[in-house]
Amino acid sequence: MTHDNIDQRVFDLYDEYCHGKIDRREFLQKAAAISIGGASALAMAQSLFPRYAEAQTVSFTDERIRPQYVEYISPGGTSGKMRGYLVQPNGEGPFPAVLVIHENRGLNPYIEDVARRAAVAGFLALAPDGLSPVGGYPGNDDEGRELQRSLDPDELLQDMFNSARFLRDHRLSTRRLGATGFCWGGGAVNYLACRLGEGIHAAVPFYGAAPPSEDVAKIRAPLLIQYAANDERINSMWPQFEEALEANGIDYRMHMYEGTNHGFHNNSTPRYDEEAANLAWERTIEFFREHLS
């Protein structure tokens, strides 16, 4: 089932499910109660669950890259240690570096694939697993979401901060650091842009929560902000965020992708919008090349 075949009400319910407002059972029950042409929308709801194996775009055996899992210290984080998926382009380096931050469910196969895409484009990419201190991504999004929700949010953000510093200072890095992230990870990118100041050189949040307005003045990196048009929860934060960016003279670009839903870049579910996702990723890579070269 494709994006265009699914009723917007089902997409809205899925967004509630993804962000923990309702559980899987309630999501399916509410979808089943929606009648479309005399038929239940249950099949639409079931089609939205991710199919990661089908969505892989860059194989982990691709000869253009060298992927590995790495461990590093993370003072002040969930446990003091972190694990991440480090992917370097095939070559000796050094390379400009890009941190890839996961959604609200840990380092799933989609995010690993995004890290490989970044490496194919010439960047040293690190995708940290915020769940690694509690066992790592458990293999399914429902359990991953519950695990991430159980963590202290400030400690989890500290783990992302430490991941950024680890990547920036890596021997294969030019010390030119960029960051991109999706959903929770988009908000984490905004957080890092505020906290790292001149220590980060480009930030690309995808449909991420805006930072507090009082923190926006700390941003030094240019921002490329990517939004889905049908994403009321996140987009309601934009006017205040935009006002703070303008007031503080921050270098930013914002793109709103018409007809898309939250998660449109994730090609493992029918929320994926191929045209918008490809354009957003092209813009992301161009932005990183512009500011990290």
What does it look like?
This protein is an alpha/beta fold and 293 residues long. It folds into 2 domains: 3-47, no CATH class; 57-292, Rossmann fold, CATH 3.40.50.1820. 39% of the residues lie in helices and 23% in strands. The protein contains 11 helices and 10 strands. Helix 1 runs antiparallel to helix 2 (24-32) and helix 7 (153-168) packs across helix 8. It is globular, with a radius of gyration of 18 Å. The model has no long low-confidence stretch (mean pLDDT 91).
Tell me the fraction of residues in β-strands, as a range. Answer: 15-25%
Which homologous superfamily in CATH is the superfamily of the largest domain?
A: Alpha/Beta hydrolase fold, catalytic domain
- Tell me how many strands there are: 10
* SS-derived structural category: alpha/beta
List the helices and strands and how they pair.
Layout: H1 8-18, H2 24-32, E1 35-36, E2 39-40, H3 42-47, H4 52-55, E3 65-73, E4 81-89, E5 95-101, H5 109-120, E6 124-129, H6 141-149, H7 153-168, E7 173-182, H8 184-196, E8 202-206, E9 223-230, H9 232-235, H10 238-247, E10 252-261, H11 274-292
Helix pairs in contact: 1-2, 7-8
Supply the key terms.
293 residues, alpha/beta, Rossmann fold, 2 domains, eight-stranded mixed sheet, globular
Overview in brief:
With 293 residues, the chain is an alpha/beta fold. The protein has helices at residues 8-18, 24-32, 42-47, 52-55, 109-120, 141-149, 153-168, 184-196, 232-235, 238-247, 274-292, and strands spanning 35-36, 39-40, 65-73, 81-89, 95-101, 124-129, 173-182, 202-206, 223-230, 252-261. The protein has two domains: 3-47, no CATH class; 57-292, 3-Layer(aba) Sandwich (Rossmann fold), CATH 3.40.50.1820.
